[in-house]
């Protein structure tokens, strides 16, 4: 019932119910339930020719006598004997996906009737009692029995039916098991699981935060939903907690960005008295311990930001294939492994030429080298698509895991709309490397400063980011106020806290949803989230967000102003 | 360093770093850190006369040579030899609570110098290297070295310093360990850890929910922050997940209610194919597995709501002491174990008389018997206070854990402001007991219907509540619409879901903050929450909630309307 990949990983979790200290006489699945067996329990050969009862869903029905019962552990065929006239009559009218109860004798099927497509295809139940617990509507909006996938909006609208498909059971159960392994590893290594607030105040810089009106002081006061536990985890380090982690719900108002969610989950952690090397080692060992496939080698390879941009034209390269950018005097080039004569439209960008004799894509370097590199980076990915789809050359192997650390980012980046101003490349709490501390004193050197920020990239996706933090109040204040010109009054509490013997500290956050989407090979992160919203932030099942009554707004001293937003 | 109670519980968690498969040569505390040892590592006798280095905080300093270094694992004295002239000069000016590094030789102290008040009072470090990593301001707003507690607002304002006190380290670490045990138990029993959204839509009835404005569709659309995962967990059961749990963050806008928090944490769970008995047994075994003290007997005692009110005048009685209410014809009475002649003002309520000859408090039953019982229930608690405080009679023993199930609540309760209308006693998803299903058909019988709701009470506090749910769409619709007159359009998705073969299911939620406050014997739940808000919803450290810029409100098509709220 489960794919091979997940099977390798789940057994310990899924079967642990058989190794518990349960006092139950028959099966652990009866613990805390009036249900006697799960389907998977029936593989126990001692149950053959014994009376068993099951609760589940009617997966399939043929005429008035043959049915298949499903629960999350598997499928089992059952037969209503001709003597059960009344039950057969009811059964005949029972829609699939109805919740049913059966009791009967577990039998081996005759050799010729064995269904090799079913795990328990050699067994069947000769029913002695049959009940419909809760009938299902006769027409289903989506097909739950097949692997076939309905369109996504139907799946989201009827998520509870979508959950009944094997693949969704597998994904959500895998998520639970994966998080359990992460926790186990971190707790074993003395990390403390600490919940931090979601209702907080605006953090200057960074993503747009949702605001939450309050009734306090006749209106005008708002919480902000935390976009990450960043400040809290630093305060915990200052408080002497040394090793913190949290599977943290984070909120960002990023409606409209593809494959983002207004709320998402991070594996968030922070340590005192650590170097970048320590954090790299921690995360590498964490992933080895929790990843369902064997991770071939640690430590993971590393690239500096500069080298990464130069070779791949992106700071999150997919290194499962080469096609690296070559620097030839005034030109950038990518050498293609085959002639692309017969491909009509490969390049959208008029600046890139194709030299068929040397099988090279060429781009003349213009003033902005970074922009050129980004163009070549995009070309590299497009080229990979074409080679895979049209030429059937497998460049990006499934279940090959190319983890890669990116280091040595510039601490500051010129702002897009005013390149004379700087913003933090990561966030304003990231420390410069020690050797560049002195560059803070001269404005002209600021853009040269390298920060102690690091990203973890997996097969072309950024899956984690973190940094060693500033623990000196003076430097933190200088960067916030003098370099970034941020409104410092929002962060006075953190600046103050740094004055009370703050320890050196650093941390990282892993994007759980993205990690799971990669390891489960789903198209969207929505497929690894139980109740996701659409890319424009809607819950299609419950129709959220929705209007609220005026009295509700009055309570918060608010009114809607439909004037156009500029 | 830790209280005895917690010591019994924490060792497995706190010492697990020594049993890890770490490849570190010296100590597990060096893993993923450049710190060599924690103070607690120094109890290893093999380290005596060896060179050790530590990172921590300066807890105490005497003159220019004696100091005590603290980390979360303990305290160690160190001595700067007279040869270290320069370091002594620096040390002399180092404020306590500065973050420091020391390196030196670990020595046994001479017999006469052993400090029996310190766990490692027989040891000291003869320093060979001393560094101030980050100096602390010379004046601290609160005393972190002593058990003495500053006033709460100072503690909340400087939470990061409050964390450095042993008692706070203990509480937050205990919380982490307790949650880990809860998870371990539930995962072992096949529960799946599933995250559900915080951004959802208004649920009719129940507590006031925070609203979150969105930018969608030119304003007017709001999320609501979920007050509990109730709907999601029912949808998960309908989706075939059978056993769900979540350590769930919940939100309620209950500003101003004492010892409540706008965000709080529940151990939330739900199962398919369960009876009340199954859930009682589950929770009893869960608590036995996770409670730091031995729980003397399971199953826990049970009382029906009616009997509970009749005997204790409350639905959450503290049963560690008797003083039960007696029913004598037209009077209610509580017999006091001693004469209270000399107590001046024990009863605020003029209706209650004291009969000194029979040592009884008496109240004539008036029309509303329930009100009378509640009065006597309050008297019972007041009486207990007086007997304990003034007469030194220990009624409510510390660390005696009287768990108690309350069952058989009425399904509906007349509304306070219009007693002809009914509201749900628990919530509108609770099922009636099977025998009372037929009473739904006649309006006059509605108030007699008993629900399948249950509360768990511990020493006078409600610590959990749950129910067996309605799984029939028709009954659910009838109760929501015809009996409760709730706006059904907010719940169409759930009503629809019940039509697709929903299984019978039920669940419970434990109030984690309250449970921890009880087991850690703290006055407020704020003491077991890392970053709590005050009772009126403020974060004193960061000054949240705060004002937001008008541009922010414009983005959400909102404006503030200061008109008085009615």
Describe the structure.
The structure is a homodimer of 566-residue chains. Chain A has 566 residues and is of the alpha+beta class. Chain A folds into three domains: 4-139, OB fold (Dihydrolipoamide Acetyltransferase, E2P), CATH 2.40.50; 169-302 and 402-528, Bira Bifunctional Protein, Domain 2 (BirA Bifunctional Protein, domain 2); 321-389. In chain A, 24% of the residues lie in helices and 23% in strands. Chain A contains 14 helices and 23 strands. Chain A has helices spanning 4-9, 11-14, 85-92, 152-157, 159-162, 166-188, 230-238, 276-290, 305-312, 369-389, 473-483, 492-497, 512-519, 550-555; strands spanning 51-62, 66-71, 74-79, 99-108, 123-134, 192-193, 199-200, 211-213, 222-225, 243-251, 263-272, 302-304, 325-328, 331-335, 352-355, 360-364, 403-407, 412-414, 422-424, 453-458, 461-468, 505-511, 558-560. An eight-stranded mixed β-sheet of chain A has the order 6-10-11-22-21-20-17-12, with helices on both faces. Chain A has a five-stranded mixed beta barrel with strand order 1-2-3-5-4. In chain A, strands 13-14-16-15 form a four-stranded antiparallel β-sheet. In chain A, helix 6 (166-188) packs across helix 8 and helix 9 crosses helix 10. The two termini of chain A are 53 Å apart. Chains A, B: It comes from Rotaria sordida. Chains A, B: This is Aminoacyl-transfer RNA synthetases class-II family profile domain-containing protein. Chains A, B: Residues 172-545 form the Aminoacyl-transfer RNA synthetases class-II family profile domain. Chains A, B: One of its GO terms (biological process) is aspartyl-tRNA aminoacylation. Chains A, B: Keywords: Aminoacyl-tRNA synthetase, ATP-binding, Ligase, Nucleotide-binding, Protein biosynthesis.
């Amino acid at each position: 019932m489960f794919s091979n990949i997940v099977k390798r990983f789940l057994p310990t979790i899924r079967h642990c119910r058989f190794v518990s200290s349960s006092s139950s006489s028959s099966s652990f699945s009866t613990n805390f339930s009036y249900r006697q067996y799960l389907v998977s329990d029936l593989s126990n050969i001692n149950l053959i020719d014994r009376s068993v009862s099951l609760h589940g869903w009617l997966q399939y029905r043929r005429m008035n006598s043959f049915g298949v019962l499903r629960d999350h552990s598997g499928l089992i065929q059952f037969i209503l004997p001709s003597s059960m006239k009344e039950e057969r009559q009811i059964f005949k009218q029972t829609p699939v996906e109805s919740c049913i109860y059966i009791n009967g004798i577990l039998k081996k099927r005759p050799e010729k009737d064995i269904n090799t497509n079913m795990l328990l295809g050699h067994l069947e139940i000769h029913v002695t009692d049959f009940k419909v617990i809760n009938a299902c509507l006769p027409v289903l909006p989506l097909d739950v029995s097949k692997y076939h996938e309905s369109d996504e909006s139907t799946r989201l609208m009827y998520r509870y039916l979508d959950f009944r498909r094997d693949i969704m059971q597998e994904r959500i159960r895998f998520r639970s098991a994966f998080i359990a392994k992460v926790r186990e590893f971190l707790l074993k290594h003395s990390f403390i699981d600490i919940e931090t607030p979601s209702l907080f105040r605006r953090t200057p810089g960074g993503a747009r935060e949702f605001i939450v009106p309050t009734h306090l002081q006749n209106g005008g006061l708002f919480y902000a939903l935390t976009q990450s536990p960043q400040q809290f985890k630093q305060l915990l380090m200052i408080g002497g907690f040394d090793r913190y982690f949290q599977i943290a719900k984070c909120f960002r108002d990023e409606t409209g960005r593809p494959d983002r969610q207004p709320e998402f989950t991070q594996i968030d952690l922070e340590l005192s008295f650590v170097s970048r090397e320590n954090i790299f080692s921690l995360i590498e060992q964490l992933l080895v311990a929790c990843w369902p496939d064997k991770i071939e080698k640690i430590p993971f390879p590393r690239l500096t930001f500069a080298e990464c941009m130069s070779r791949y034209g992106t700071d999150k390269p997919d290194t499962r294939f080469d096609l690296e950018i070559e620097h030839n005097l005034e030109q950038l080039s990518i050498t293609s492994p085959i002639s692309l004569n017969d491909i009509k439209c490969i390049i959208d960008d008029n600046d890139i030429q194709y030299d068929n004799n040397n099988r090279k894509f060429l781009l003349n370097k213009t003033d902005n080298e970074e922009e050129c590199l980004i163009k070549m980076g995009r070309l590299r990915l497009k080229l990979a698509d074409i080679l895979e789809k049209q030429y059937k050359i497998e460049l990006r192997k499934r279940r090959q895991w190319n983890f890669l650390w990116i280091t040595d980012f510039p601490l500051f980046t010129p702002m897009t709309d005013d390149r004379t101003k700087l913003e933090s490349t990561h966030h304003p709490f990231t420390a410069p490397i020690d050797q560049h501390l002195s560059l803070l004193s001269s404005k002209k050197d600021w853009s040269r400063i390298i920060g102690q920020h690091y990203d973890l990239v997996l097969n072309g996706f950024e899956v984690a980011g973190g940094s060693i933090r500033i623990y000196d109040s003076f430097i933190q204040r200088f960067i916030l106020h003098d370099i970034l010109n941020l409104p410092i009054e929002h962060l006075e509490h953190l600046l103050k806290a740094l004055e009370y013997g703050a320890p050196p500290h650093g941390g990282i956050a892993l994007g759980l949803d993205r990690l799971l989407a990669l390891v489960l090979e789903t198209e969207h992160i929505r497929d690894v989230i139980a109740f996701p919203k659409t890319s424009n932030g809607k819950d299609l099942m419950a129709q959220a967000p929705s209007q609220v009554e005026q009295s509700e707004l009055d309570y918060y001293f608010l009114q809607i102003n439909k004037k156009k937003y500029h």
